[in-house]
Amino acid sequence: MKYMKAIFIIFLFFSIPQPSLADHAPSPVNELDDIADQALQLTKAGKYEEAKHLLNYFSEEFAAASMHQSFSMDELRILTISHNLALEAINQADAGIEQKVNAVTKFRLVMDALSSHYQPLWVEMEDPIMEAFKGVKTAAENGNSEQYHSELNMFLAKYNIIQPSIKLDIPVEQAQALDARITYIDQYRQKILESTEATAELTNLQTDLEHLFENKKEDEADPSLWWVIISTGSIIVSTLSYVGWRKYKGQRESRESERQKN
């Protein structure tokens, strides 16, 4: 019984997350991510002045964070462009709420992609993007030109929101191939609508999009969680092996003692 209690205590020790100093000290990148998220929430609430102040504050904090956190040239370029577009949309008086929200959302997803090592927020856009693409393909198959162009414009607008963050999370070659296919479909949209062979490009794009989201979801598990599971499992196996060996040793000594008495 005492061995089983020991196993239970060991299991609890390794299963419960241990507090650390890092839990109480957010990194500069995580703080920037929080600022971007607050700016998005304010934009959605129609509080554009407050959102603008936060976006400007982000620039100041980012300059300070860059002293301690290194970013690649591509990361800096993508983040800077998305931030400038968000600020431009917020300052644009004649821009509608959807345009403002989309611009700040794009910036928010980029910052999240830089701060998250798994479970990026852009993956959550899978349903609306795939639903929009489904409308494109259905309209093309039905030969409905007006609906096809409308659905394609809607899909392109949704994909445009996640495009910058995708470039930060997937291999360059994959991102370029995906962009090239989408650009081709956009530029030759009428040809694709009228040609059966060209319509196959839509099927190819659907496959690429499905792989994009599926492959990223496979990487969502936190590596530290797997380390805890493996470590805990190893300790439990070792403990059980030790308990089994002690039990076997005890039984053997008992049998030898009985034989000596006889």
Q: Which characteristics define this entry?
A:
mainly alpha, Four Helix Bundle (Hemerythrin (Met), subunit A), 0% strand, Sporulation protein YpjB, membrane, transmembrane
Question: Major sheet: size, sense and barrel closure?
Answer: none
The level of helicity is over 70%
Helix-strand sequence? HHHHHHHHHHH
The unreliable regions are 5-16, 19-24, 221-230, 232-237
How many strand segments? 0
Task: Choose one word for the global shape.
Answer: flat
**Name of the CATH first level of the largest domain:** Mainly Alpha
Number of helices: 11
User: How far is the first residue's CA from the last residue's CA?
Assistant: 31 Å
CATH architecture of the largest domain: Up-down Bundle
Into which percentage range does the β-strand content fall? under 5%
Using only CA atoms, what is the Rg? 28 Å
Our count of domains comes out at 2
Mean pLDDT: 82
- For this structure, the CATH topology of the largest domain is Four Helix Bundle (Hemerythrin (Met), subunit A)
Q: Which oligomeric state applies?
A: single chain
SS content category: mainly alpha
